[in-house]
Structure formats: structure tokens, C-alpha cells
Amino acid sequence: MNIAVIGGGYAGMAAAVTLADAGVPVTVYEAARELGGRARRVVVNEVALDNGLHILLGAYNDTLRLIRAVHPCPDDALTRLPLDWHVHRRFRLKAAPLPAPLHLAIGLVTASGAPVRERLAAVRFAHAMRAQRYVLDEDTTVAQLLSKHDQGPAFIRYLWTPLCIAALNTPPARASAQVFLNVLRDGLDSGRTAGEMLLASSDLSSLFPIPAAEYVCARGGTVHMSHSIDALIADGGDVVLQTHSGTHRHAHAICAVSPHRAAALLQKLPPLEHAVAMLEGFRYQPIYSVYLQFAAPVRLPTPMLAIGESVRWLFDREAICGQRGMLAAVISAEGVHEQMTNDELATLVMEEISAELGPLPQLVWHRVIAEKRATFECSTGLERPPTRTPMSNVHLAGDYTAGDYPATLESAVRSGIAAARQVLEQR
Fold first, then answer.
1. CA 243/CA 236 separation, integer angstroms
2. Which of 174, 211, 286, 335 is 20 to 30 Å from the Cα of 374, by its Cα?
3. Banded model confidence at residue 53, pLDDT cuts 50, 70, 90
């Protein structure tokens, strides 16, 4: 089988590894010079950073399975943190060392930073969602769901809203409550380790895409870097990939690029008109990652800490991946930070950190990485295209495709596996 995978991110490489496992050599075309897509390595001043501070959960079974399959040292690839939701000096929820769902129930009851009535209301909410198997009769917004179940202001401010933005990258007033519940179901109620937070011990390209490419090539596949595809065309039962320098003909193509890029690539395939229309109707939300390199070590109380109003999460890069004197902050979803210059944003982050942790060492350099279309806006009623298309030899893969999850690494990997299996059905 002559298979093309367009895009070397987590979705594309998951598809390629799945096909390679089945003995099917694939050709991967990646437009950038680095594998990983929106979860790739960025080297600044000889330091390996990531273009987005992505977190995995213990519930990400497919992603973890593929990492174990291709990574040379899978046990050292991730830093595991137990469920410890820590908003500095304001709120803290730690899961108890008990089986699910008791681990969460005890954590909610004993959470610090909220009155007893709010803690009990949070337990009732978790119990009610579990009783209805995390399924809503009709989707609503996260804000409306929390209001319906009488969630208090402390829990909304310090737990549910940050969790919604971290998971869906969408403000609660517009975020899909059903997708939010899917995340709660798998992350908090499918086993005590499901809610563990897993951070790459090196960088996101080295975590999976690069070893995946080596795995694919060792099994007869090919990975082309800096090779951009302009359009897909159907011709005589094949799929022709157009580039600025020529064409490539394949029996099947898996389109595993970002949704706005996919909409452009698929324009010349009339049977995919409806899928293209869905993609063109997407709204997007940004993620800003702010890296701060200090002249001396700066250690946080925990490797991952929520602070301030702008900085949702702050990461101790020395504790996570050995980068001495490096802190990284993530600012998710829309906000006033989008109007700031990089220097202004770095200054704001520094001020919020100093207000929480005290004086900081001398700043050596900073880097702001802005992904303006980091994820689709996971709003209520959003129609997302399936991986299977009306064309039997064209398949979609990406975190935007139809599924239970929002735009996460796990949803990307799942879509790549699904697309590859659809190809294998036709052998």
C-alpha cells in the first residue's frame, strides 16, 4: 500500500506508527524543520523549549502506549506528578491515596481555601455527574452547568474555571459542558492514577514524534522534512499531492495538519465540501508560553503551580527537565495579554511571580511563544468532522476531529490511530 501522511505532529506520527506496526510502509510529509506540529521543540539560546506547554494525563492511554512503543527510554520520558491542584496561597486540592472515586471525594472535602459548604457542594456535583455517567441530556456551557449545581465562588474561581481553560482552552461561558464532563470522567474517575499530570522530561518533539519517525523509518517508511503540500487532488483512484516543485501520487492520504491548514488542502476535493465548511467555521483560542531564564535557580513549592490572575500555571523547568534557573508560564485562552508586546507580557509575568514568590534573580533572557490558533474553541454544539470522509482513500487526523475530547495530545493520537485503521480495513 502506498500511503501518504501529511503532517508530522502527534496525529500524523500516531497514524504512521500504527501503519508501520501493521507492516505498511508510509511516507510522511512535514512542512516544518521540526516534528511535532503545535507540540514541537523550539531551540532558543541552545536551550530546548516547547512551542506550547502541553500536559499529559495518566488517562491518556493511547498516547502513553505509543510512547512506550517507540521511545528508547520510556520510563524516563515523563515526569509524573500526583493530582495536586495548587493555587499558591489561595487553594489546594490533593487526591487521597485511595481508589477512585474516593480519592477525589476526600480531596474535595479536605480542599483548603474554600468554606465547608462549597466543598460539600463540590462533592454533590461530582456524585451527581457520576450517577448520570457524565452524560447530559442536552449540551450546555460549563458556566451554566456549574450554576445549576450550586458551585461556590471559590471552587469556580480556583478549580472549575482553571480546569476548564486548561482542558478546553475555552472560557466557561462558551465551553461545552459535555466535553468538560468527558475530561472529568476519564481524568478523575477512571482510576487513581488517571488524574496524574505528566510532563515531558526533555521536549515534546523528543517525547514522541522524533522516536516515532525513527521507528517508522526502521520499518521501511520515509519521513520528509521541510516538505510542504499545497493541495490534494483526486486522480484515477489515487490521491495526488501538489507541491511547489512537483507532485506525489499515493493510493491513500491521511491529512494530519491543523484544522485551518486542512481546510486549505482539501479545497479541491468536492466530496469533502461539508468537512471543509465545518473547518472554515471554527473559531480559535490562543496559548502563550513565556520562558524566563534567570541567572540563578528559582525553585517553586511544587513543580507546577497556579499563581496570579494572568498566569494560569507556572512550571519549574529545573525540577521537571533539569533546566537550571528556568521558569515557564502559560497563559491560555483569550484575554488582554493578546494586545501586549512580548516584552510587556514578560514584564507582567515577572511582576506576578515576584508578588507571589518574592524577589527574583537577575533575568538573563526571556522568550514568548504565541500560538494564536493553538486550539479550536470547544464551544457548545460545535460540529467536528470525523476521521472517515466520503472518499475511501482520504482520511482526516487531528485533535479537531469528532471525539470525546477537546484539542489535546490524546485526541490527536486517537484520531491518527483511527485514520490508520481505516486505511488498514481496505487491504
1. 19
2. 211
3. confident
